[in-house]
Design goal:
single chain; 7 strands; seven-stranded mixed sheet; Spore Coat Polysaccharide Biosynthesis Protein SpsA, Chain A; alpha/beta
């Protein structure tokens, strides 16, 4: 994170029932980075080594992936962050690649880590096909040429976050797409950088049924 000396940066880490993975993620973060962990109602409350740069916020019950982001972004903005990086607590996305998205905000108010810019692509087949289809539809609708608009590795400027009506968005997974569609609809650029990712038993993924619900919601959001 090359701008940490002159730009206030916060890393928001939503997490759910992932203590081991969360420990690994937090262990890779620079000590100088402000970290906001949002425990979205884990069965066993998550623990972090609290210090002056680390904050742990808890939801008393599971409220959803979007709700966890809302809580984290609000805390980051209240704390004076100028740039905010979203890093998953289950260690799915490479930590270094995700942190590097902050530098991409020099030229855009939002940045995404694309798994399609990395070879070999590790996204499971049916998820990869759905991702491609929805990204293509959005590109057609907004006149863009993005390789992936469904990555969980993201970064935003504080100005962009404040401009979006985050509270009105879904508390579930559709939150991500609502943010991006609003940004694209307003004509703002979204930077892309490669991000490595992994898929194993420790990574949290939504079910096929919820993926279909998410996909239908994305289509409605893109076309509205």
């Amino acid at each position: 994170m090359t701008h940490s000396a002159c730009v206030a940066i916060a890393v928001v880490v939503p997490a759910l029932n992932s203590q081991t993975s969360l420990n690994a993620v937090l262990g890779r973060l620079p000590a100088s980075v402000r970290v906001i962990v949002v425990d979205d109602g884990s069965h066993t409350p998550l623990r972090v080594g609290l210090d002056s740069n680390t904050t742990l916020l808890r939801h008393p019950r599971n409220r959803g992936y979007g709700a966890a982001q809302k809580t984290g972004y609000a805390a980051a903005l209240e704390g004076g962050a100028e740039r905010v990086v979203l890093l998953h607590g289950d260690d799915q996305y490479d930590t270094a690649d995700t942190l590097a998205l902050e530098a991409a905000l020099d030229g855009a108010p939002a940045a995404l880590g694309s798994r399609f810019l990395v070879s070999p692509n590790v996204i499971p087949g049916w998820r990869r096909a759905g991702n491609r289809a929805l990204t293509s539809l959005a590109n057609l609708r907004f006149g863009t040429q993005h390789t992936e608009l469904h990555s969980g590795a993201r970064a935003y400027t504080a100005t962009m976050l404040r401009a979006l009506p985050l509270a009105s968005y879904s508390d579930d997974y559709l939150f991500d797409q609502q943010m991006l569609c609003a940004i694209l609809r307003a004509g703002h650029p979204i930077a892309e950088r490669p991000v490595r990712a992994r898929y194993d038993d420790t990574v949290q993924s939504i079910s096929l049924r919820r993926s279909i619900t998410y996909g239908v919601g994305c289509i409605r959001e893109i076309l509205r």
